[in-house]
């Protein structure tokens, strides 16, 4: 099984590159951001609670996203592998993911981190905010809060996979095709 964690700050291109990877490798795409936005659009209790946090640029509680991922793993027992996009975002989520996969006789193959400067992230997200309708993309202050949440809570997740010798970082600035080629060369080594 090929189980990839696509890692990087908000706007690094995780969602963008995931689309290409699903097509090429036939993997199931699990984006916690998309799953949460799905709950919001359906108006569920979980979605109403998550929306407040997402709109202000905060992370949603660990137990909420871990529960969503667990359900998705159970619903896709015959998958060839998964791309985890935007998850794990805390060390507690990374530990939970290892335990969930181990209980299914599986494991993470590797983490690929997209490195992008803060000024480029801000520009990309504000540009997407012009058309996405996403409240968390529209406001520079919220974008900066998301980047701070990433630096405080998410960046340490890289250390978790470095300890397991599963971490690779690549340059996330350049054309989408160039970045996809770099990701592919990492995957070929697995
Ligand atoms: P996410 O939905 O995961 O969103 P993201 O970090 O904004 O996006 P991503 O990196 O995928 O960027 P994309 O490819 O779209 O999270 C949103 C919120 O949900 C979080 O703030 C949090 O509140 C909550 N959440 C989600 N998961 C959670 C978890 N596990 N725990 C707790 N809370 C959680 O790219 C962005 C833009 O850049 C696009 O417009 C794209 O076209 C552009 N772009 C991409 N590649 C480019 C390139 N090479 N050059 C130029 N532009 C590029």
UniProtKB/TrEMBL annotation:
Which residue intervals make up region (NMP)? 31-60
Q: Which positions carry the signal peptide feature in this UniProt record?
A: none
Recorded metabolic or biological pathway in which this protein acts: Purine metabolism; AMP biosynthesis via salvage pathway; AMP from ADP: step 1/1
- Top-level enzyme category: transferase
Task: Respond yes or no to whether keyword tRNA-binding is given for this record.
Answer: no
Assembly and interactions? Answer: Monomer.
Q: What does the record say about domains?
A: Consists of three domains, a large central CORE domain and two small peripheral domains, NMPbind and LID, which undergo movements during catalysis. The LID domain closes over the site of phosphoryl transfer upon ATP binding. Assembling and dissambling the active center during each catalytic cycle provides an effective means to prevent ATP hydrolysis.
Family of this protein: Belongs to the adenylate kinase family.
What is the protein name stated in its UniProt record?
Adenylate kinase
Give the organism, scientific name: Mucilaginibacter lutimaris
Q: What is the lineage of its organism?
A: Bacteria, Pseudomonadati, Bacteroidota, Sphingobacteriia, Sphingobacteriales
């Amino acid at each position: 099984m090929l189980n990839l964690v696509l890692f990087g700050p908000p706007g690094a291109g995780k969602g963008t590159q995931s689309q290409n990877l699903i097509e090429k490798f036939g993997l199931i795409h699990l984006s916690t951001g998309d799953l949460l936005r799905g709950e919001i659009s359906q108006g569920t209790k979980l979605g109403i609670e998550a929306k407040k946090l997402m709109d202000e640029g905060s992370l949603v509680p660990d137990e909420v996203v871990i529960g969503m991922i667990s359900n998705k793993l159970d619903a896709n027992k015959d998958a060839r592998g998964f791309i985890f996009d935007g998850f794990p975002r805390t060390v507690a989520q990374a530990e939970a993911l290892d335990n969930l996969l181990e209980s299914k006789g599986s494991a993470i193959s590797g983490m690929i981190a997209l490195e992008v400067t803060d000024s480029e992230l801000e520009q990309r997200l504000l540009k997407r905010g012009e058309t996405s309708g996403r409240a968390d993309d529209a406001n520079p202050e919220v974008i900066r809060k998301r980047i701070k949440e990433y630096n405080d809570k998410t960046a340490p997740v890289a250390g978790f996979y470095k300890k397991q010798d599963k971490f690779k970082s690549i340059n996330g600035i350049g054309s989408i095709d160039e970045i996809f080629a770099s990701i592919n060369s990492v995957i070929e080594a697995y």
